[in-house]
Amino acid sequence: MSNSPEFLVFGATGQQGGVVASSLRKARREVRAFVRDPKSERAKALVRQGITLAVGDLFDRASIDRAMTGIQGVFSVQTSSPSGLVTDDQEVAQGKAIANSAVAAGVAHLVYSSGAAAGKGQTGMGHFDSKSRIEEHIRCLPIATTITRPASFMEMMMLPGMGLNTGVFTFFMKRDQSMQMIALDDLGRINARILCKPERYAGQVLELSGQDLTGKSLEEAFSRAAGRPIRYQRFSEEMLAGNDFLRQLTMLVDNGVVSGVADIPSLEHEFGPMLKLEEWLRGTAKTLFEKALNASEADIVLR
User: Fold this and answer.
1) Of 10, 36, 249, 256, which is most buried, counting CB atoms within 10 Å of its CB?
2) Cβ contact 66:56 at 8 Å
3) For the chain, what are the domain ranges?
4) Contact 144, 109 (CB under 8 A)
5) Contact partners, residue 154, CB within 8 Å, separation at least 6
6) Which CATH architecture has domain 7-151+182-208?
7) Do the Cβ atoms of 277 and 217 come closer than 8 Å?
8) pLDDT for 227-253, tens place per residue?
9) Residue 220 near residue 226 (C-beta atoms within 8 A)
10) pTM, 2 dp
11) Which helix (H) or strand (E) holds 241?
């Protein structure tokens, strides 16, 4: 790590960190990625992009401190409890450890990727409230920070079990109800720009989204992209009654806490055009969409 890359990216073998690291490399910036297993395929893919690896564990503060050496800007994102890999308290501890380490190392700028539900009061769902707790901690530290709050990822709709392969797509909002979403590619390039221009974005909290979508607009876009009818429906009351996680999340969509409040025209004025769903389905997500359309019954995880 003696070449001292400009930026340290956490979560680089995951979705958010991966697109941020790649976007920074496309901007010809030097990047160090914090990884647990340097032999994993995703870690090797980072190396092929010219990204330096810092091996460590988010439960090991000393390894975080070593990775911070010589770094100017940090992108911080943590795994949430729905993954089954960490508890809510562990996520908070990891978020705090990264921020504290950045301060101790004299890092100039920290970008924390939070969530759309953060900063809007207690939700009662730990994996949302954990992000508010990390935000509160970061605000008290003597370091320039930018907090980004992404809306739901478009990629989430491609998960097995949402029904694209059956011709009936099931999701959270009502047919005429709006929910904001963003493509990971946009998330990556926006956070990369923020890291590259700390003097412009330090001290800001940015709600990030690319498009307001309704159940009806999903139905129309998916049908056109698939070349056959894809009907939209909200999760049934029976399913919600039997699944506390889905029921609580749907309630937060209904009351607006997780449906998104980003000013999309202002974001596009600042960061350029956002990927819209139909463009995304034809481009970056084409393979994902085809895989979801052709998923077998064995892939179904939600019924």
Assistant:
1) 10
2) yes
3) 7-151+182-208
4) yes
5) 181, 182, 183, 184, 210, 275, 277, 280, 285
6) 3-Layer(aba) Sandwich (3.40)
7) yes
8) 999 999 999 999 999 999 999 999 999
9) no
10) 0.94
11) helix 237-242
